[in-house]
Amino acid sequence: MAETDVFKVSILHKESIHCGFHLIPYIARTVLNTLPSSTYVLITDTNVANFHLNEFEQDFEREIGTLQGSEPRFLSLVINPGETSKSREGKANIEDFLLLNRCTRDTVILALGGGVIGDLVGFVAATFMRGVRFVQIPTTLLAMVDSSVGGKTAIDTPHGKNLIGAFWQPEYIFIDAAFLETLPSREFSNGMAEVVKTAAIWNEDEFMSLESRSAEIFAAIQTPSANFAGRSKATRSTAQELLLSVIVGSISVKAHIVTIDERETGLRNLVNFGHTIGHAIEAILTPTILHGECVSVGMILEGEISRQMGILSQVGVGRLTRCLKAYNLPVTLTDPRIASLPAAKQLTVDRLLDIMRIDKKNSGPEKKIVILSRIGATYEQKATIVKDAIIAKTLSEAARVIPGVPSHHPVTMATPGSKSISNRALVLAALARGTCRLKNLLHSDDTQVMMAALNELKGASFSWEDGGETLVVKGGEGSLSVPRKGKELYLGNAGTAARFLTTVCTLVQSSPNDDADVTIITGNARMKQRPIGPLVTALQANGSKIEYQESQGCLPLAIAPQGLKGSNIQLAASVSSQYVSSILLCAPYAAEPVTLELTGGQVISQPYIDMTIAMMKTFGVEVHRRTDPATGKKLDIYNIPKAVYVNPEVYNIESDASSATYPLAIAAITGTSCTIDNIGTASLQGDARFAKEVLEKMGCSVTQTETSTTVQGPPIGQLKAIEEVDMEVMTDAFLTATVLSAVAQGKTRILGIANQRVKECNRIRAMIDELEKFGVETVELDDGLEVIGKPIKELKQDISVHCYDDHRVAMAFSVLSTVIGGTIEEKRCVEKTWPNWWDDLENKIGIKVEGVDLASISSEASASGTQNHDADASVVLIGMRGSGKTFVGEHAASALGWTCVDADTHFEIKHKVNVREYVHQHGWAAFRDAEAIILKELLEEKTQKHVISLGGGIVETSAARDLLKQYAAAKGPVVHISRPIDEVVKYLGVETSRPAYGEPITEVYRRRAPWYSECCNYEFINHVGEVRDDGKLAVAQKGTRDEIARFFKHVTGQKPNLSANLASGRRSYFLCLTYPDISQALPHIDELSEGVDALELRVDLLRSPKDYESIGHIIPSASYVADQIAILRRASSLPIIFTVRTKAQGGAFPDDAEVEVIQLLQLAIRLGVEYVDIEIALLEKQIRDLSSRKGSSQLIASWHDWSGNMKWNGPLVKEKYDTAVGFGDIVKIVGKANSIQDNFDLYNFVTSVQSKPRAKPIIAINMGTAGQMSRTLNFTFTPTSHPLLPNKAAPGQLSFKQIQHSLHLIGLLPTQRFYLFGNPIAHSMSPTLHNTAFEVLGLPHHYELLETTEIDETVKMAIVAPDFGGASVTIPFKLDVIPLLDKLTPAAEVIGAVNTIIPQVTNGEEKGRILVGDNTDWLGIRACIIERKTDPIHAALVIGAGGTARAAIYALQALDAEKIYLCNRTISKAEKLAAAFPDARIQVLNEITQWPNGSVPPSVIISTVPASATTTNSEQSNAMLLSNNLYDYRDGPAVVVDMAYKPAETPLLKLAKTAGDNWATVPGLEVLLEQGYVQFEEWTGRKCPRNTVAKKVREGYSS
Ligand SMILES: NC(=O)c1ccc[n+]([C@@H]2O[C@H](COP(=O)([O-])OP(=O)(O)OC[C@H]3O[C@@H](n4cnc5c(N)ncnc54)[C@H](O)[C@@H]3O)[C@@H](O)[C@H]2O)c1
Ligand SMILES: [Zn+2]
């Protein structure tokens, strides 16, 4: 057999680590010969087994065959891959296997696999038979360089990772790098994070080879080594050598450290670099994001902490960043791989710090972090204690600048290298001959991708000197090769790099060794929209083959390697000077000398072209710009000779002049002095003129030499405005000038900067909008802006500046913040040109900066927002005249018990003239001003318990709009009453009391509509319906009134319309309405809603009639959706669940219409929809935004897995749950069942998460028929279907009734018995009533009569039986039953009688059941009255003075009756009753119609005496004589209720028929029904199915 060459590394003084390639035979031989045993057990996972188990088995068997003496056994065990195996169960499995196979103390265990196998098997070995020998054979890079070395073994528990384990050293660690050839490349990168880490803390040389040779290292694992190549040194390729040296290098460091400090007491801490923060991130993102990926981000953040502490330079952070990126590792939390995850929402500063608190390295409460001092060395020989504030500052998204005078005054500093010069220098040095040392190179995104790309093209080699301060470029003289197949040059959003590299790539020459035939350059999504067309067109015209891969005119490009032809090139240069520079830089390498002609008129940014030409000259190539011989004028034609650049030995990159404007401006604004070392009059950059041309004019003293600039500012507050300044030659510096002008005395006009509208953002707009927050006024001009300066004292404080992801906006506002303070959101956007700006601001200038966690800002904001407004805060109504503000306002006020205020009336009182007259006298403008003042007064005076209705035109002035917006944002609801505009037109056509518009109403509406929606936080759709001929509003239907009451109680928070069952912990259900048009549901709405607690409106299924015919995706319009909700609300009082499901979630909404989804969800919140379903896959910002506006509504945070891959006992579901809990009031997780077992797993999951304190309600469902069981078991808001629906919303959906059956059958809904106690009761309709309801809802209960002469043992037995569900009580026991009860409701207490017994489960200390007595008679009476009469009751009459009369009085009192006449045959009894209700304003009558003369006759009459006790026959004695004047009331609706149950038409009701037609009659049966419905709901928690029940009861009654 071929010889095997291994490299041995010693650890703990033993050479036990053996490294090489294709080691399996070697492993078998070594193990069998040096670790003699009776049994060898190899444990691996299925992934690794697939690739390598056979070979192990064969080699071990073969080798065993060669052994002398008794043959040992070779056993193997294959387990599931993945972290879940690393558990107690996983360990027990292996142990059982070993025990079953009678393994003994001499067993040798081989762990073949990644870190999971190594940790788990190692721990088994540590405890099996008190410890057996074991061997590590790591197969992932992570396991090779990290987990297998050091002897740490462990398993996970639900409490955390690696919490139980042991130190147990393996006998051998065999590192076979050939295993890496089968490893997925993401896993390889995962391991590289640890390799980079080790080099970073220990060995700069190693780090250098990692940073420069990533392409080769990747190549080594991606090229399979045939025929065991590499096993012997002779057969090893260079790539293999490199790979092995990287691994060995890394292992050696770790082995060394472990040897010195095996138990991690100090030095071994160091290998935790990046891990303190990395682990915290991992805790949140595992298992989606791998350990190494989290550590990679952790290293950068920890590197930044050390930079912040002034220990590590930006160079170090930059190199680390670049190196990790080269191995495809994420370096920030905003990396799309991380940021796109819903779990990323939990990466808040507080949460991360909280997790870090329990880090094993900590001593006490202090956190420890490994602090780098430079690449290859750490600050201490152990982790360093770091304060929370420092960590928090680095982790925060935003920075707060604390105002003050720079403490390092006078400041002297250099700014980072210029971005433009850095990029040009990189290209030049790479293309040149010889070696160049670049100093002061900018370490930023742009230069990083540029270097990475040049590296990939093998165009040059890069290395570092002076700890990275100097970049050594060995030029490739223009030789460039095609990157290997599949490798694209990824440029992120680096514009300069993209433009320069496009031409550079045309220089690539093909070679026979290439496996790819084009070079592809690409970028991120934004980059893919930025233009590159003119440059590509020019190059194509010159003969280069360049193809657009996606959209025309943008990246990605595929460029053929055929060299640049040269000669004449024409280029349109009006968009970007970078196109010109790109061609200029490469032109010397074209086949023929180039003549570059710029076309298209105005050439943009000539200074940058001049800069390129000047730099080319430094590198030895002189460009000739032609002049017109006739005029001597310069032409836009350049001649570039054919040549090779020659590298100067050293090239000093000038500091960035735009960056320099910030420290200089800080000197100017704070009255201090600042010197910038590296920029002076000789600068190539236009922005170098900023000091002289702007700062000096503003009153600073400026001293400039060729290479330095010093600025001394005037005393604070004394900057002068410059009347007008043209900044065309230094456009980037205009932002700096703008913030200074904001505090200068006078107006400053800044011109010549129109191009700044198309930079990273529209910078002119950005400055205007952000300055406005500080209270600074500006005027936008065509090519600039005017700033009206304001004294610093008058600026607004505590402003949070949004930066539009633009570095210059961020830095400019940090200048302003040095005098006023301010929070700069998105602090990281400075990374583009000055990554350590915030550190330099503090460490070099001496202005304090704090970290701010935006997550907490937004929760603060929502705390002051409408979400938590005071429930008593007044409501403001806005909307077109004629939209029904007055009508809605009055009803809302009466429902809330508040006062309604009309702004117009208020106006008339104040100005003593009506609105119409005022406009006539003073004109519209004056009226609007006066109106705004009224608004302000109203908002200030009527802060609580008012409904304020405003004039339609209030939104016409911005002052009023601002007031409204502020009110909506911070104080209370502003509701836009919206009514279809054609109804408004029709209505206004006949109304004249207010001033005419003088323009068409529809025009007015069009103009105001956006203002209304901008000012309101709620919208109420008011469909008043018919307009009657007389022009008055038709009396709104009861539906509308109920809707108004519900809506306003909900949005104010007085009584949110949420499901009671959900709140009280009963099972709850909703019905999914799957209609395209909800009005189709209305005829059946009562049946459809049987049993359920809410109605789900599936918005994705809605189709307006005009869309019926269309095929394909339809997105219903907002107005249609709003209409549908209004329709549904008038038909049903149930809360609505608003759901938009996309196709991917099993719905019908297009998957890519995220914007439309968000708009609809916002609409739902505005309409006060009670429950809004939000997919957690939406962007965090949008969810936060919705959540901050939700008010009383609740969010259902939902996640759907349709793949069937999600396991309820797997990690994914937990991750989703945690995310959903983060913002949802209710969590919804939907999976798919493949078998019944999936339902049990679901149930266990729910039980476990619900057992936590304060757990949020969860809807957990499995789709599919196999998942039906989960629909039975689900507790909260189970989605249901109904046989009457057009189709089911989801497969496997059951009806409410089916679920009740099912619950009963599995024992979760036992039968209960209900009774009627009374005598005589044989003819009672109550059994029909309740049993019909039970039947309709599928409840297994039974209601029966218990006729008895007294409250005896049978009654007592019935009510204490465990299956007692409740009872009705009637004559004669309504009082007798009271002693048996534990408690009475307030109503029963006051009425002094009980007609309902409700068993209630108590959760108090003694968990048990109590019996509660209630009286629902009064509710029945009240319901019958309000059904028919809603206007105020001026007077009512009650006949009788028994128990039912008490209920009647109680009901009337609750209805606010102003006067109650009481009439009874025995007057003393009536007087006694009146005395019992002292607040009810009762007047006892001697004769039935004897109310005082001139007073209002009763509009409500309730008789509580038997029919036989009344008569219309004056002959009849011993009965109360009823006469016609009982019904004298004529001024509106009136009701007479006869509680007598038989006959159907009592004398009282009969007489009413002959009275006016304003009288409605209510027979006793109706009251019985109403009070029965209430009883039913009290017992079962379910609404009684009224229609069916009433029908059955009426039939029974009349038969
Ligand atoms: N003990 C320590 O000091 C230490 C240090 C770091 C990490 N760890 C632990 O290591 C574990 C992670 O280890 P990991 O990253 O190796 O993960 P892993 O063991 O889960 O392996 C990653 C994946 O790659 C597969 N795989 C492994 N080798 C392969 C090969 N050669 N070809 C194809 N597929 C292959 C595996 O089946 C698995 O699916 C974690 O549990 C972590 O806690 C321990
Ligand atoms: Zn690690």
UniProtKB/TrEMBL annotation:
- The record's EC number reads 4.2.3.4, 2.5.1.19, 2.7.1.71, 4.2.1.10
Instruction: Give binding positions for NAD(+).
Output: 45-47, 83-86, 114-116, 119, 139-140, 161, 179-182, 190
Name the domain of life this protein comes from. Eukaryota
Q: Which residues bind ATP?
A: G879, M880, R881, G882, S883, G884, K885, T886
Q: How is the cofactor bound?
A: Binds 2 Zn(2+) ions per subunit.
The chain's coiled-coil residues are none
Q: Mainly localized where?
A: cytoplasm
Family matches, as InterPro entries: Aldolase_TIM, Aminoacid_DH-like_N_sf, DHQ_synth_AroB, DHQS/DOIS_N, DHQS_C, DHquinase_I, Enolpyruvate_Tfrase_dom, Enolpyruvate_Tfrase_sf
What Gene Ontology terms describe where this protein resides (cellular component)? Answer: cytoplasm
Q: Which family does it belong to?
A: In the N-terminal section; belongs to the shikimate kinase family. In the 4th section; belongs to the type-I 3-dehydroquinase family.
State the protein's name.
Pentafunctional AROM polypeptide
